[in-house]
Every structure is written in structure tokens, then in C-alpha cells.
Design brief:
Blueprint lengths: L2 H4 L9 H7 L11 E3 L12 E3 L10 H13 L11 E5 L2 E4 L4 E4 L2 H4 L8 H13 L10 H12 L5 E5 L2 H19 L9 E5 L8 H5 L4 H4 L9 E4 L4 H8 L4 E6 L2 E2 L5 E2 L2 H14 L2 E5 L23 E4 L10 E5 L1 H4 L15 H14 L2 H22 L5 E7 L2 E6 L4 H9 L2 E2 L1 E3 L4 E4 L7 H14 L5
Parallel strand pairs: 5-17, 7-8, 7-9, 9-12, 12-13
Antiparallel strand pairs: 1-2, 3-4, 4-5, 6-14, 10-11, 13-14, 15-16, 16-19, 18-19
Helix pairs in contact: 5-13, 6-13, 10-11, 14-16
Length: 463
């Protein structure tokens, strides 16, 4: 193996421990890896790295190898990327620079709801780019106002605050909750400032949202984090109610369906209990629908299946079909506590991303589109259960619509690699033992069938 190939993961992690942690894989023992001494780069660029035996892996193409080597020299090593470089996509398919085709069940982590290169989306982005891309929030723009009107008319909310990502939307929700409590307790020396989040939750990677994210290995390198956050068991209504009624809780953050946490769905009773306790105590209920919202469950909003509504809802991933946008949707009661200067963002809600989002939202809002997502999701779930349910490694197939999870009794990493080598892109979730399937919402039943066949063919990789 050449020294340059030995260094392709030098920028991914400072050590094999970090690399495997990001993949949620257990440590390797000496009988299952080779230690390579990387000679070609300085220690700051390339360290000792443990690599899996690659004798059965496909060869990395020359173009891919060149890009990976350049990446290792200039990009901060926060991502453990797969050894593939994509050049273009169409519908539910992606193509790499070596000419290989892949069926995409990742959607850019639940982002590309309309797939790749949707012609209406491309036209909207192109037309808007030709007229106006950015003006900042010092001024008004038509696409921002139109998108906010559309979101308000199709949800519980009265007003919208735009951001650039889901993390920023949750940061806004944190600030709005704190400000709301000060606004409603003007004479209180210590108004409620604490937060509740739940096991297996994920709300982001900024210091504020990381403080609300339960996974310890995400949190520990950056401590001390924001104080006043209590993690409770997801679904434990009694514990949540008791803490909410203490009078110290500004807001409760909960995902109606946990994505990164492992595709766990809340029950209606759990959300009803949170709603009732928050109403009684004056706390806010915040739904994080960054991954599960905007049609992914077959409902426009995941919480619509339960009929239990929040005070704040955060959105992001699929909203602009691949361009960076987020939003915090709030009631008038929450909005009344926010004044000019309390929060802001230079790029958020720009004309370009909002025009793209209008195109995405208009398509998803169609009842026939949502019905199609629900139908395809049920079909795929039944197909996976039929084909994979008898495998000794499969514990459960779960989820709603087109956000599905296959829980395994072993790490899913080898299956992810085998599927990618066979032309299928999938994700992991939870503790690395759950296969996460979040395809574009436009995927066909034929493509779902092909995906199931590839998954079945690749399952021996787990042995």
C-alpha cells in the first residue's frame, strides 16, 4: 500500500479511537487490524491509524484517491467520510467520479426530500439566483414573507424565525424559552431557566444544543456545557411531569420520532402528558422535527399523528431541498416575549433559500404526495420485515413513513460498507447497531424493492 493511500484517513481522526467512535464501532483488538506507519505527512497531518483488513474491499479509484488525499491536507478532521466522491445525482440515484451508480437511501441525512436535481427546484433556484440571492435581515424580501405565510398557514404556529440549520433553530428555541420565562415572570428573582431532554436525543452540536443532546461521547470533549439540563428516559411521563411541576423548567425539548437516537417513536400518551404538565407549570413544549418533519412520516408534521401540539417547533433538513435553512415556528404567546435585537442571523431566510423552500413545501403539501409517502413507507416496512425479519441479527424493524430503522444485535458498520460497495447508500443510528433508512420522499416502489434485495444480499457481511 502506498504511503499516500495510507494517509487518506489522516484528516478524519487523530487516532483510530476517534474514528471508530464516530462510526459507533467497538474497539479493534490486535487480531483484527494492521497498524500502518504513515511516513509521508507530518504528525499534525497524519498519525498512526488502525485500518480494517481491506483484502475484500473494492479498489479506490485514482480520481477518488486524489480528492481524498487533498481533503486530508486542508480540511479539519471532524468527519469520518466514506471513501467515495460524488459528482452528480438524479432522482434517487447518485453517481461518483469513477462512474459508479448508487441508490440513495440517505437523502443527504434526510435532506433531499425531492431527490437530486428535481427540475422544479433547479428552476426555482436558478431563477432566484438571477434576480436576488441575499440582502440580509436589515431589509424585507418577498420569498421570506411568502415562505413564513405558508408555514404558518399549514401548522399550529403564528410566527416564524428563520435560521441556517437545525442546530441554530434549536438554539433559537433555547433563547426564546429563556426570554419567554423572563417576560412572563417580570418580578421573579429566579425565573425558570432549566430544560428537560430525553435519552437517545439529538438536538445539535453547538454548546447550547449539545447541552440538550444525550450522547456522552458527543458531550464530554466540550464540557463544561450549559448547566440546568436534565435527561430523562424517553417516554417516562411520570418523571417528566414531576420535574416540570417543580417550577424550574423553562422548556421541554422532545423529538416526536428520534432520528439519530435510533428511530424511536413517542406515544400519544407521553406527548399528552408533557403538554398537560407544561400547561400546568407554565413551561414551553418544544418539538424538534428537524429530521422527522416535513412529510417524512406521511404527515406534514410528525406530531400531527398524535394531535398534540407544541409551543415551538424546529425545522431544517428537507425544507429547502438541499440548501441550508432552518426555522423555529412559534405561537403568538411566545413571539410576544421577543423584541428587536434579541436574536438574529446574517444569512437566515435569504431570498434564494426561501424560494427553494417554497418549491419543496408546495410539493410536499399536496395530499396525494403525503399519501404516497405513507403508502410507500408501509410497503417498505412490510417488505423489510418479510425479507429480513427472519435473520438472526435483526431484532426489530420500526418507524413511520419513510423514516425506518432496522435494529441489529451487532454493529451495523459492516453492512453499511457492504451495501455501499453494492451500490446502496444507508446510514446508522443509535449506538451504531441500527440501520437508518431515510430515502428521498419521491422514491418508487421498484427502487424500494431493489434496496431490500441489496440489503438482503449484504447481510452476510455481519457474520
Amino acid at each position: 500500500m502506498t504511503s499516500s493511500l495510507q494517509c487518506i484517513f489522516g484528516n478524519i481522526a487523530a487516532s483510530s479511537t476517534n474514528l471508530r467512535r464516530q462510526f459507533n464501532l467497538p474497539p479493534l483488538d490486535s487480531g483484527h487490524h494492521k497498524r500502518l506507519h504513515l511516513h509521508s505527512f507530518t504528525p499534525s497531518k497524519c498519525l498512526y491509524v488502525d485500518v480494517l483488513d481491506q483484502k475484500n474491499a473494492p479498489q479506490i479509484g485514482a480520481k477518488t484517491k486524489e480528492i481524498m488525499e487533498d481533503d486530508a491536507k486542508v480540511i479539519v478532521g471532524t468527519y469520518a467520510r466514506a471513501p467515495v466522491v460524488f459528482s452528480h445525482g438524479k432522482g434517487c440515484k447518485l453517481f461518483d467520479i469513477e462512474g459508479q451508480e448508487y441508490l440513495d437511501l440517505t437523502s443527504g441525512i434526510a435532506v433531499n426530500a425531492l431527490g437530486h436535481s428535481d427540475p422544479d427546484w433547479v428552476r426555482a433556484v436558478s431563477d432566484q439566483a438571477h434576480s436576488l440571492a441575499h440582502v440580509s435581515n436589515l431589509y424585507y424580501s418577498v420569498p421570506m414573507v411568502e415562505l413564513a405565510k405558508r408555514l404558518v398557514s399549514s401548522s399550529f404556529a403564528d410566527r416564524v424565525f428563520f435560521t441556517n440549520s437545525g442546530t441554530e433553530a434549536n438554539e433559537a428555541a433555547i433563547k426564546f424559552a429563556r426570554k419567554f420565562q423572563r417576560h412572563t415572570h417580570p418580578d421573579a428573582k429566579d425565573p425558570p431557566t432549566e430544560f428537560i431532554a430525553f435519552s437517545n436525543c439529538f438536538h445539535g452540536r453547538t454548546i447550547g444544543t449539545l447541552s440538550l443532546t444525550s450522547k456522552e461521547n458527543y458531550r464530554s470533549p466540550f464540557e463544561p456545557l450549559m448547566p440546568g439540563v436534565t435527561f430523562l428516559e424517553y417516554g417516562n411521563s411520570e418523571a417528566a411531569r414531576k420535574l416540570i411541576l417543580s417550577g424550574k423548567v423553562a422548556a421541554v425539548f422532545v423529538e416526536p420520532i428520534q432520528g439519530e437516537g435510533g428511530i424511536y417513536s413517542a406515544t400519544k400518551e407521553f406527548l399528552q402528558s408533557l403538554r398537560a404538565a407544561c400547561d400546568e407549570a407554565g413551561s414551553l413544549l418544544v418539538y424538534d422535527e428537524v429530521q422527522c418533519g416535513l412529510g417524512r412520516t406521511g404527515y406534514l408534521w410528525a406530531h400531527e399523528a398524535y394531535g398534540v401540539y407544541p409551543d415551538i417547533m424546529t425545522l431544517a433538513k428537507p425544507l429547502a431541498g438541499g440548501l441550508p435553512i432552518g426555522a423555529a415556528l412559534v405561537t403568538e404567546r411566545v413571539s410576544s416575549a421577543i423584541n428587536p435585537g434579541d436574536h438574529g442571523s446574517t444569512f437566515a431566510g435569504g431570498p434564494l433559500v426561501c424560494q427553494a423552500a417554497l418549491t419543496v413545501l408546495d410539493k410536499i403539501l399536496s395530499p396525494s404526495f403525503l399519501a404516497g409517502v405513507s403508502k410507500k413507507g408501509q410497503y417498505f416496512k412490510e417488505l423489510l420485515t418479510k425479507k429480513l425479519g427472519g435473520n438472526r441479527h435483526v431484532k426489530e424493524v420500526r418507524g413511520q413513513g419513510l423514516i425506518l430503522g432496522i435494529e441489529l444485535d451487532v454493529p451495523a458498520g459492516p453492512l453499511v460498507d457492504a451495501c455501499r460497495n453494492s451500490g446502496l447508500l444507508i446510514l446508522t443510528a443509535g449506538k451504531g447497531n441500527i440501520v437508518r433508512l431515510v430515502p428521498p420522499l419521491i422514491i418508487s416502489e421498484q427502487e424500494l424493492e431493489k434496496s431490500a434485495e441489496i440489503l438482503l444480499k449484504c447481510f452476510p457481511a455481519l457474520d
